Amino acid sequence: MNLPKLKKTDKYIGLYVIDFGEQSSVGFTADEVAELLESEKFKDVKVYKIHNAYPDGRLELKGVTADTFQLESGMLFYAQDNEKAEKYYNGLIDISVTSAPPCRAKVHLAKYADDSYVVALIYPAEYDDEVSGWLLQNDYKTEGLAEGGYSAVQGYYDAGAEVLKRHQLFGESSFESRSGDSLLVAAKLAVQR
């Protein structure tokens, strides 16, 4: 993969590299990648997330499948009683007031048929690392069983739990996303370099 020479490489951590085939481009947000992958022209590009960057211009990349940008992922925090579930639910909402999550997310407080409870934090799958970091940074803790990933979220949906409360969290990204024509211009320039 032929990457352009970069200066101030640390500002690219958390962004994406897109390999268009003959050329590649650096600095796309998750939203931009998702939009490009929806287009017929760019549906087969290869995508890499920048996990680390070095002053000499080298980047540490991790491949990301296109499917990731179509999935919901999340974390499920289980409780045996409503009181604990309410505490977990309110804890997530309280954190989001003082520290916005890295992306848009939804929080459900739900009850299963066996009278157990779950608090589901559901978000776009491409933000797994950032959401985990956000929870750690804010010292969010629960007791008991917890699980995560897109299969856990699908299992939650399939179980048909009764949603007792729901709340929408609004994310705050450190990167501004382009969309529509400005994004296509950026992608076109990357291909023509």
Helices, by number, come to 5
Shape: elongated
The tally of strands reads 9
The main sheet comes to: 5 strands, antiparallel
**Could you tell me the strand content as a percent range?**
25-35%
Which bin fits the share of residues in helices? 25-40%
**SSE order, one letter for each helix or strand:** EEHEEEHEEHEHEH
Structural class: alpha+beta
Low-confidence regions:
none
Mean pLDDT: 88
Instruction: Tell me the radius of gyration.
Output: 19 Å
Distance between the termini: 13 Å
Strand order of the largest sheet: 8-5-7-6-9
Structural account:
The protein has 193 residues and is of the alpha+beta class. The chain contains five helices and nine strands, in the order ββαβββαββαβαβα. The protein has helices at 30-38, 82-98, 128-137, 150-159, 180-192, and strands at residues 16-19, 24-28, 46-53, 59-64, 72-79, 105-111, 117-124, 146-148, 162-169. A five-stranded antiparallel beta sheet has the order 8-5-7-6-9, with helices on both faces. It has a four-stranded antiparallel beta sheet with strand order 2-1-3-4. It is elongated and about 55 Å long. The model has no long low-confidence stretch (mean pLDDT 88).
